[in-house]
């Protein structure tokens, strides 16, 4: 196996070209080849990176992350989640059945990948939904975990919803800040549908920050910056329904996890900033929520390995109180709070993610609190991390033009990568 080559070729060919391989696994009444990537095996403990979603691919979206990891001398393994990308189809070429795509099966797939690569134990780094999968893997295969990084973590499909609702609303609807006051005024004016306004507020706050959000809300109340508002409102509409984008985000076959296991789209409460709102429009034809497979709050006190919990200050999808609860539950866990950052360092601040994983793998968990300011100050890398500057620049340009480039707002598109969990 060597460095990844041939980016123009289909992902399946890249996997088979020397950067990884496949392991055959049961899938319903058939079998599936689970693809994985390991660019440069080395001595020591590998690091497994699990992206968010559900439905986010590993092979194509995280090429830059793997290149950066190899440059640091890290041994990285990434598995293409069953039902997604290069692991989407069974060995006959047909799409996997939704019933064959479960969290338990994906966790067991990871154990099989470690077997295929001759790895006994690995540091497992999960981001957003990937933290659910990482914790599920740890419960089912505790002897394979050398350490764990939970980045923007999930904990309880039921309890998390209440936590997210309270956090968002206290901050951006009921709170004393100017952004909350402007948001209330916008809702009172009934100029924008509540779900659309809630989505725009979340995206802009997370990616561009409170100051940009205040400017956009004030402009929207004045009938300006409508083009910027519309573009933000349309972000990510294809990532929560339909087939998505092949080899990037494919939400259709993982619906059993999204809805059945994690409860996305359960009935919203009708108030602003509800994390259930976006998925609820598509829940009628999705598997019903059948309850949590594992009681993770009860399992975490038995995690006997070094654990770091990464949490962005502006994360509205899996906010700080969830991370703090996990730190309380896992013996010896360390919080890595990253200021001025939203959801998923793995997507928005990859150098921070790699540094945390590297320090933990090297036995430096206890050093992370002292290193966190330096880690947070590293240059921002990651495709999602570019969204904030784009929103900021688009708003500044539109407000600089006569009339603020007025146009008609849209209420159709809503969503962004890793909604709710990941």
UniProtKB/TrEMBL annotation:
The keyword Hydrolase applies. The keyword Glycoprotein does not apply. Residues 402-422 are annotated as: Disordered. Keywords: Hydrolase. Residues 402-412 have a biased composition (Low complexity). GO terms for molecular function: hydrolase activity. Residues 46-162 form the AB hydrolase-1 domain. Pfam families: Abhydrolase_1. Belongs to the peptidase S33 family. This is Alpha/beta hydrolase. It comes from Pseudonocardia xinjiangensis.
């Amino acid at each position: 196996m060597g460095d990844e080559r041939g980016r123009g070729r289909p992902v399946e060919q890249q996997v088979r070209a020397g950067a990884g391989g496949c392991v055959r696994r049961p899938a319903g009444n058939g079998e599936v080849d689970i693809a994985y990537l390991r660019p440069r095996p080395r001595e020591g403990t590998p690091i497994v990176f699990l992206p968010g979603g559900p439905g986010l691919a590993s092979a194509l979206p995280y090429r830059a992350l793997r290149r950066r990891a190899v440059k640091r001398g890290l041994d990285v393994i990434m598995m293409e989640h069953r039902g997604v990308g290069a692991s989407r189809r069974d060995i006959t070429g047909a799409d996997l059945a939704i019933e064959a795509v479960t969290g338990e099966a994906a966790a067991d797939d990871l154990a099989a990948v470690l077997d295929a690569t001759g790895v006994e134990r690995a540091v497992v780094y999960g981001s957003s939904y990937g933290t659910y999968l990482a914790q599920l893997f740890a419960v089912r295969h505790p002897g394979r975990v050398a350490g764990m990084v939970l980045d923007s973590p999930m904990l309880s499909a039921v309890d998390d919803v209440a936590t997210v609702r309270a956090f968002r609303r206290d901050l951006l609807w009921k709170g004393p800040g100017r952004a909350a006051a402007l948001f209330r005024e916008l809702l009172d004016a009934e100029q924008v549908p509540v779900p659309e306004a809630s989505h725009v507020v979340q995206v802009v706050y997370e990616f561009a920050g409170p100051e940009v959000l205040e400017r956009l809300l004030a402009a929207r109340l004045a009938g300006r910056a409508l083009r910027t508002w519309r573009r933000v409102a349309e972000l990510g509409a294809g990532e929560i329904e339909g087939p998505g984008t092949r080899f990037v985000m494919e939400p259709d076959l993982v619906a059993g996890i999204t809805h059945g296991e994690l409860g996305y789209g359960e009935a919203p409460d009708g108030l602003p900033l509800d994390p259930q709102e976006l998925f609820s429009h598509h829940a009628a034809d999705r598997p019903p929520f059948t309850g949590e497979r594992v009681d993770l709050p009860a399992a975490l006190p038995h995690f006997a390995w070094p654990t770091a919990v990464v949490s962005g200050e502006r994360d509205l999808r899996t906010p700080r109180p969830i991370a703090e609860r996990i730190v309380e539950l896992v013996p010896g866990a360390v919080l890595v709070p990253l200021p001025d950052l939203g959801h998923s360092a793995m997507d928005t601040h990859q150098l921070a993610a790699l540094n945390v994983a590297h320090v933990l793998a090297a036995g430096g968990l206890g050093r992370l609190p002292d290193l966190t300011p330096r880690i947070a100050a590293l240059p921002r890398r990651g495709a999602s991390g570019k969204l904030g500057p784009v929103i900021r620049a688009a708003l500044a340009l539109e407000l600089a033009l006569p009339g603020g480039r007025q146009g008609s707002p849209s209420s159709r598109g809503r969503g962004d990568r890793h909604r709710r969990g990941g």
